[in-house]
Amino acid sequence: SATSRLIWLLAEIGEGSYGKVYKAREEGGKQRLLAVKKFNFRGDASQVGIPAVMVREAALMRKMKYFNHPNIVKLLDVSVVPAGRSLDLTLVLEYVDQDLSTYLSKVPASGLSRDAIKDLMQQLLRGLDFLHTNLVVHRDLKPENILVSSHGEVKIADFGLARIYSFNIALTPGVSEAVADAPGDHL
């Protein structure tokens, strides 16, 4: 757990509506770089509850941890610590050097080669295919949530708005009929 792991926060690398993301270093054995996402929920958690976005991201990342897909950022640890009447939720994730925006800003004026574009897109689509096969819809895919390592590895990150869908999604009769009918059936 995060409490048994000694982690040094090195720098803040991002901020969202529910907390901050830090670049960190694990002390001891591996001394690897990590990303630490700290959600700070202020307010009385016993009265209001924990915001759904915090619970959703932690639960979804824990579920995906067991699949270990190369194009999904890896969750290494989760901890929830009571802080008075509020809670601090921390996700410890693998560290990836940059997001897609930063990666693209470093591309030479001549642009990326066709092979580089094809490789990036294949990795992104493999990650999306994995999510959709497991009934997960990301719902916030943008350059800041697509990470690219210095070795060109693409990882989808930030699952705060993601949803898990099941096959029993209710469709309105008009929608299900429109999908089931062949073109030209409505003459």
From TrEMBL:
GO terms for cellular component: cyclin-dependent protein kinase holoenzyme complex; cytoplasm; nucleus. It catalyses: L-threonyl-[protein] + ATP = O-phospho-L-threonyl-[protein] + ADP + H(+); L-seryl-[protein] + ATP = O-phospho-L-seryl-[protein] + ADP + H(+). It comes from the Eukaryota. GO terms for biological process: G1/S transition of mitotic cell cycle; regulation of G2/M transition of mitotic cell cycle; regulation of gene expression; signal transduction. Residues 7-187 form the Protein kinase domain. ATP binds at residue 38. The keyword Nucleotide-binding applies. Keywords: ATP-binding, Kinase, Nucleotide-binding, Serine/threonine-protein kinase, Transferase. It is an enzyme of class 2 (transferase). Pfam families: Pkinase. SUPFAM superfamilies: Protein kinase-like (PK-like). InterPro entries: CDK (IPR050108), Kinase-like_dom_sf (IPR011009), Prot_kinase_dom (IPR000719), Protein_kinase_ATP_BS (IPR017441), Ser/Thr_kinase_AS (IPR008271). Transmembrane segments: none annotated. Its EC number is 2.7.11.22. One of its GO terms (molecular function) is cyclin-dependent protein serine/threonine kinase activity. PANTHER family: CELL DIVISION PROTEIN KINASE, CYCLIN-DEPENDENT KINASE 21. Belongs to the protein kinase superfamily. CMGC Ser/Thr protein kinase family. CDC2/CDKX subfamily. This is cyclin-dependent kinase. It comes from Takifugu rubripes. The lineage of its organism: Eukaryota, Metazoa, Chordata, Craniata, Vertebrata. The gene is cdk21.
